[in-house]
Design a protein that fits this description.
This protein has 542 residues and is mostly helical. Helix content is 46%, strand content 9%. The chain has 24 helices and 13 strands. Strands 5-6-9 form a three-stranded antiparallel beta sheet. Strand 1, helix 3 and strand 2 form a beta-alpha-beta unit. It is elongated. The termini are far apart. The relative contact order is 0.08. Bound molecules: glutamic acid (GLU).
Length: 542
């Protein structure tokens, strides 16, 4: 009775009952095996690859089970919120093709029957259940202030609890109705804490689909359910939201394993059945000292999903790389099914890797190269142009001026080639990679080659006529090289190198360096065709 009176004193405006709230969220009618899962990010203005990894796992689990995938914005931490955070998040999800069955639109409309899909719009529900728990004696108001002295006491209590691994009850847990009233009459604000029923030596076991059964110390702390501003910290919000919204599987980062015992006690206090957990490992990197560490927002540009957009990576590259990390079987599947869409690869929660996967940029770039190698010249050109319009307007202007030339460049050694060249892994690298197309190259020959290069290129320029096939082009070079004392037969050259100025490969190298400034490049004949006869002649004047 006393507890009921305290609850009413604390929440006089909360008139809805828990039963009424539960009635608003009827149980979802699901077919056997259908999974309802969600992505529940805090909009911080930064989409971390680890969060995206989790979003992608849950997306696949929902889709593979023909289930439901929803987005819940966990925006209760107002300190962490940044302007445009929602837009940045939505843009990243959209770019990578993550679609939700239920969510709130950017302009605030709920799509789905289990909303609102934004936590700050659900505050009344948290209060209803907090009031219920107080009325049942399972929770209580705490008037401890964060004044200096008090904060020290709270801190000490916290560390003591951690050190001793024993329970520590809050001093406010047994306040009487009169005491509560006195605090309130005094104008004091309060938090709501769970009155843990544990004593500190209990252990529990819970199941995780990725890690298996986990044994842990039971919660034995009067944790906060509602802060003094009425906002719930993660555990209470999680229990209420995931229950009301009909989540059947909670996919989240393994950093939540440590606090799961507290979540379990909250579920029990609320009388809610526990939801199946699926804690995914965190993505790691090898640090500078060879150590394995979590991929970090601070040190690793590739921790930010926006990075992949800005660098113009094919979106499938990151998705396929993440699938590789989720389940090592993906790599073999991809080899055996080179033309299938990644979404044809199905995996079960129990098949998700339990060990932290390593992010390896070289491997990732290889995946990106393989994907771009399958694109037509036109597709690559269009992607490049679209990217440039956003990130390099000057380049976009140049690309737009001469589409045929640049489509040809993009198609070079790729379109229709039996073994397409695997050299480009993102759009941001292309201007530098093809810099000889945009500007006169810096030409430098090795000292030993200087005179021969000059002589050969002069003769080549004098006779230069654009060839119409690669073979014709090569024949021309070969004939000229032969007439100037270069070996046209490599066996002869190898047997007696001193008898020649070099071989045909050397002559080709001179042309390549004059035209591109590099010793390696895609097919020189095509590059020269793209540049056109006048430009080629200009470049041959070294
Ligand atoms: N807002 C939490 C986070 O971003 C959600 C965790 C969860 O998925 O339950 O870490």
């Amino acid at each position: 009775m006393e507890n009921k009176k305290i609850a009413q004193l604390l929440f006089p405006d909360v008139t809805m009952t828990a039963e009424e709230v539960l009635a608003k969220y009827p149980k979802r009618s699901l077919k056997e095996g259908q999974i309802v899962t969600r992505f529940a990010p805090s909009p911080t203005g930064f989409v971390h690859i680890g969060n995206f990894f989790q979003a992608f796992i849950s997306y696949n689990l929902a889709k593979n089970s023909d289930g439901i995938y929803f987005l819940r914005l966990e925006d209760t931490d107002r300190k962490r919120e940044k302007a445009n955070a929602k837009e940045i998040l939505y843009k990243a999800l959209e770019t990578f093709g993550i679609k939700f069955d239920e969510y709130q639109t950017l302009d605030g409309k709920d799509v789905g029957q289990y909303g609102p899909y934004v936590q700050t719009q659900r505050e009344v529900y948290y209060k209803v259940f907090a009031k219920k728990l107080v009325a049942e004696g399972k929770a209580f108001p705490c008037f401890c202030k964060k004044t200096e002295g008090k904060e020290d006491v709270l801190k000490q209590r916290e560390t003591k609890w951690l050190e001793n691994d024993a329970c520590e009850y809050d001093p406010c847990r047994d306040l009487t109705y009169e005491e509560v009233k006195a605090h309130l009459d005094n104008g004091e604000s309060f938090a709501i804490r769970l009155k843990t029923k544990n004593k500190g030596d209990e252990r529990i076991v819970f199941n995780d689909l990725i890690k298996g059964d986990i044994e842990a110390k039971a919660n034995a702390k009067d944790i906060i359910l509602l802060k003094s501003d009425g906002i719930p910290p993660y555990p209470f919000a999680h229990a209420i939201d995931d229950t009301l919204m009909g989540t059947t599987m909670v996919v989240r980062g393994e950093e939540y394993i440590a606090s799961t015992p507290a979540h379990i006690e909250i579920f029990e206090a609320l009388g809610f059945p526990l939801i199946q957990y699926c804690h995914n490992p965190l993505i790691c990197k090898i640090g500078d000292e060879g150590n394995r560490r979590k991929i970090s927002k601070r040190y690793d540009p590739e921790a930010n999903m926006t990075y992949y957009i800005e660098m113009g990576y094919p979106k499938e590259a990151i998705l396929e790389y993440l699938l590789n990390m989720i389940n090592s079987g993906f790599e073999i599947w991809r080899k055996n099914n080179p033309s299938l869409h990644w979404s044809e690869f199905k995996f079960k929660p129990t098949e998700i890797t339990a060990v932290a996967p390593l992010f390896d940029i070289v491997k990732f770039n290889d995946i990106a190269k393989n994907i771009i190698a399958t694109w037509s010249g036109e597709k690559l050109y269009n992607a490049w142009l679209e990217w440039a319009r956003q990130y390099d307007q000057n380049l976009a202007g140049i690309l737009e001026e001469n589409p045929q030339k640049f489509i040809r460049l993009c198609a070079m050694d790729r379109d229709g080639a039996a073994k397409p060249r695997k050299d480009i892994y993102n759009l941001a690298m292309m201007k530098e990679y093809f810099k000889y197309i945009f500007e006169m190259p810096q030409v430098e020959f090795e000292d030993a080659d200087k005179d021969n290069a000059k002589e050969f290129l002069k003769a080549y320029a004098e006779n230069y006529k654009e060839a119409s096939t690669n073979e014709e082009w090569f024949e021309n070079v070969k004939t000229l090289a032969g007439s100037l004392g270069y070996a046209t037969d490599n066996k002869l050259y190898k047997a007696n190198p001193d008898a020649f100025k070099g071989n045909v490969a050397k002559a080709c190298e001179f042309i390549r360096v004059a035209i591109t400034g590099q010793k390696n490049s895609p097919t020189l004949f095509t590059i020269m065709q793209i540049l056109g006869e006048d430009e080629v002649k200009e470049r041959l004047k070294v």
